[in-house]
């Protein structure tokens, strides 16, 4: 994978995904050490180029790069450049001249990471582009499910909420389908993309049916910044019908886990109680985000060594 871009889960095959998850397991182990640092990317430069706000993803990439001993530079373009695609490419060219080893890009417009990748020599990692994809989120979600359930294949994963505007939903649909899970979607009809069944998923407007026998339930944030119209009569009604609480969870399996990519609108997609307590695994997702992004930086921007070699799992430095 060295030198490749990571623009979406759609471009990965099952083996790629499994390799990333296996490598992330090694990185989890590094995160449990007293000294959480290895020299793997010493002398390498990772640029975080975030055109859209982010808390956990940016911090997660920054910590991931630092744990691998890379030099991490956070580049936050001014809000005015958001609308000028020319200046975005100029920014990319300027960065390219500084010879980075990886550039992590987030943008509110779908497809911008790909355009940047076209002009950049270094691998581009998509950290979320509009409503298109958020590949590292889906990979950290798959890692969390694999840890909690011991497998992904054969599980039933129900994704609830604003599927239409959610890059997390799209990437997770690709990831969980490629790993052999059954994926169900539950949302009010206007929030279900037309023709989504061709991705191998089933869409439900009844939450109860979608939850029946589910092993994993993922609630999505209402994407206020991308709604641009009335998709639900009111947030209160949405919450009453599709907001997850313990009573609704009774329809799922007894050992169901609850996930959310964050940030949570408490009391809207998830009850306060569920946001903070088991079976919610939200903080495990955040923790795994660092390990997963270490794996991605290592595999896409690192040197050609095999996972599990001394350079990854071995000497702290
Ligand atoms: N943090 C995730 C994203 O950037 C989920 C969200 O914002 O709802 O897409």
Describe the structure.
- The protein has two domains: 9-134 and 286-313, Aspartate/ornithine carbamoyltransferase (Rossmann fold), CATH 3.40.50; 135-281, Rossmann fold (3-Layer(aba) Sandwich), CATH 3.40.50.1370.
- It is 40% helix and 14% strand.
- The protein is built from 13 helices and nine strands.
- The protein has helices at residues 14-31, 56-67, 85-97, 112-119, 135-149, 167-178, 207-211, 224-227, 235-242, 246-249, 272-276, 282-301, 310-313, and strands at residues 45-50, 71-75, 102-107, 124-129, 156-160, 182-186, 202-204, 216-219, 257-259.
- Aspartic acid (ASP) binds at residues 128, 134, 137, 167-168, 221, 261-262.
Based on the model shown, name its key terms.
single chain, 317 residues, alpha/beta, Rossmann fold, 2 domains, 4-stranded parallel sheet, 13 helices, 9 strands, globular, binds aspartic acid
SSE topology:
Layout: H1 14-31, E1 45-50, H2 56-67, E2 71-75, H3 85-97, E3 102-107, H4 112-119, E4 124-129, H5 135-149, E5 156-160, H6 167-178, E6 182-186, E7 202-204, H7 207-211, E8 216-219, H8 224-227, H9 235-242, H10 246-249, E9 257-259, H11 272-276, H12 282-301, H13 310-313
Parallel strand pairs: 1-2, 1-3, 3-4, 5-6, 5-8, 6-7, 8-9
Helix pairs in contact: 1-5, 1-12, 2-12, 3-4, 5-6, 5-12
The structure holds aspartic acid (ASP).
**What gyration radius follows from the Cα positions, in whole Å?**
19 Å
Q: Helical segment tally?
A: 13
* The first-level CATH class name of the largest domain: Alpha Beta
> The CATH topology of the largest domain, please?
Rossmann fold
Helix content: 40-55%
